[in-house]
Amino acid sequence: MARYEIYVTYKQGIFDPPGATAERALKNLGYEGVEEVKIGKFIRMSADATEASVAEMCDKLLANPVIEDYRIEIVEGD
Amino acid sequence: MRFGVVIFPGSNCEQDVVHAAHHLGFEAEYVFHRETDLAGFDALVLPGGFSYGDYIRCGAVARFSPVMSEVIRFAEAGGPVMGICNGFQILAEAHMLPGALLRNDTLKFICRDTTLRVEKSTCQWLDTAPGTVLHIPINHNEGNFICDHVTLSRMEDNDQIVLRYCEPDGSRAEGGSAPNGALEDIAGVCNERGNVFGLMPHPERVVDPATGGTDGQAFFTSIVGTLAKVAG
After folding, report:
1. Domain range spanning residue A38?
2. Which residue of A19, A64, B118, B221 could cross-link B132, Cys pair, CB 3.0 to 4.6 Å?
3. Which positions in chain A touch B103 (Cβ < 8 Å)?
4. Domains of chain B by range and CATH?
């Protein structure tokens, strides 16, 4: 059994409405140093599956390749 | 003429679509998401709603419903398929249509009437003259159409942009006329062949004059005309 952590984010150039709103809100709160906020998804998965198979899961279901990129990390130990 | 209206868990506009078809004198029947036999249907409609709770992404789970393999086969054989709202999102997730639907740029769920301009397209579902302005309501949280520039120019070259949000006079505002931030004010697109069509507005809600308009009738009657021509 392997443990995976998957980060799904919008591709470069795809407008991220929640990220843009968070960015504006932070600036309104006085955090003027904030330059770019991107909001994505974080998925934690335990699976009897290879990394290649997890990548296939991302391509099929967990991410939409038209608008999103993903990064898979393998979590070592407990 | 017999429409099949596909129901996924969480669809909620299927009755409106069936009512619209019946109002115009056409047959329409529900198709459950577990069905694998689409024999006897002339055209399919994927209605609006929140299939599978819109989890992961709108339409992402519905796309793998058993019925969808048959919907894809039906479309590949030239059968007409229209996706309305969530149905559009499902067709985009299934890559039967180009692009994707992001969250509205306002971050608000929008439910209101819109004005739409008919574009010159190859869409079999709409034979209304280009430039005509239609009044049809929208009702969505993720209708912000997006695609890359290569896809956009290919769609323009192939006349795949079917509907654009516009001002009441048919013009497009400089800052965009789309209430949801959609790229190029795009409200509806079709595939290259013109038989698969997706749109965010709800034409089925303006078919019976009792619900406030008749501008949605053209979407149902056009495809009937197209099929009659094919049958020749």
Report:
1. 2-75
2. B118
3. 17-18
4. 2-231 (3.40.50.880)
ipTM, two decimals, is 0.84
232 residues of chain B, pLDDT tens digit each: 999 999 999 999 999 999 999 999 999 999 999 999 999 999 999 999 999 999 999 999 999 999 999 999 999 999 999 999 999 999 999 999 999 999 999 999 999 999 999 999 999 999 999 999 999 999 999 999 999 999 999 999 999 999 999 999 999 999 999 999 999 999 999 999 999 999 999 999 999 999 989 999 999 999 999 998 877 6
Total structural domains within chain A: 1
- Residue A56 is part of a domain; what is its CATH number? 3.30.1280.10
> Given CB atoms, is B72 within the 8 Å cutoff of chain A?
no
Chain A neighbors of B100, CB-CB under 8 A = 64, 66-67
B202 included as an active-site residue: yes
CB contact, 8 Å: A21 with chain B? yes
Backbone phi and psi for residue B187, each to the nearest 5 degrees, phi listed first: -115, -20
Edge-to-edge, what's the strand order for the sheet holding A68-75? A41-47, A2-10, A68-75
Residue B85 annotated in active site:
yes
Output the six-digit token pair for B223.
């495809």
For residue B150, the distance in angstroms to the closest alpha carbon of chain A comes to: 12
CA distances to A24, B166, B205 from A29, rounded to whole Å, are: 9, 35, 42
Spatial contact of B12 and B50, defined as CB atoms under 8 Å apart: yes
Which among B207, B162, B196 is positioned nearest to B17, based on CA atoms?
Answer: B207
